[in-house]
């Protein structure tokens, strides 16, 4: 309704919205004051009239709040109170959030929004006392919007019980918040025990951050029992790697996405995490040292040694204007469709339960089969250092040799070639051993 000067006479004359004749639900109507912007009167279909204020927070969120009921509060008192609150808004204060916090009425959704705003501004510190990474916040936002808000968003934090939180965890595990993929590019929202446990960890962390800065008095998730998810230890056997490689060659001949095929091969040759492999930039490759210098990873900045087969694969990628070895089909980002390509390959190869992380497990498994130690494998995978010794295992010759050996073995299996490890298992001598044996035979010949 058009803005008018709100007076007692005007409010008395306001009528309740008329019932709809087309079955559409009737909503409340508003009259806004023409002198005090953001001050108005709300009229409900029942005829109830209330004074309200409406404003935007410093973060741009639209807020609307009832400040009193007409009949219990005069127009003059309502105007004075509205003026006081709107002045606070002009100074950057969110009066609705401040009152909710003071009375313990902050909702889970409001607290999650506060966390995302503060974390994105770098004002909340995460692991190793550093600002929370953008990739972590992306996952947090996804869990908040997909699972936490639908199940607990409207609940007041102060009224939550452990049982409420564990019930939400059970709902996520059983797929209550799962949603199908939207369109051709949107991601699906899944459930399951792993998703439920990780979502609960996110919620617990949000509450802990809020407690530490005095946003809420206690963490209602403290002591909650998280589901023990079954670790995913799927890895490809030698036979499955051979089948995967054969199928990749077949699909390449049929026009499968070359960037996706190359990215999958790199993940197998290096053990990189999915986004590490897809996001490798050309300046990061140290060709002479045989390493990729990541400015940031899940475990911080790292120099990751890779085998010569992996270096060659990167150098073989067509040069474009993009800084990435695996550029997106459009835009300035890196390629993101590797999961779809991998799914098509595995469907043709009749391989099940294979994800990009399976390729990382497969790399580690092959390194173990070749006899390399857990410390060496951890260094190749870029696991966080757990001791003083491991900090120095990053660029030594032994590690370079290990990276070369594993990458070449993986490449030979993918390409359907006989490998050193395979020959030894069948009892065939190593090429160098055959050469030495031949030389000894020649010397022994009279």
TrEMBL record:
The keyword ATP-binding does not apply. Residues 231-405 form the Tyr recombinase domain. The keyword Cell membrane does not apply. Signal peptide: none annotated. It comes from the Bacteria. Residues 106-211 form the Core-binding (CB) domain. Residues 174-193, 426-446 are annotated as: Disordered. Keywords: DNA integration, DNA recombination, DNA-binding. Belongs to the 'phage' integrase family. This is Site-specific integrase. It comes from Acidiphilium iwatense. The lineage of its organism: Bacteria, Pseudomonadati, Pseudomonadota, Alphaproteobacteria, Acetobacterales.
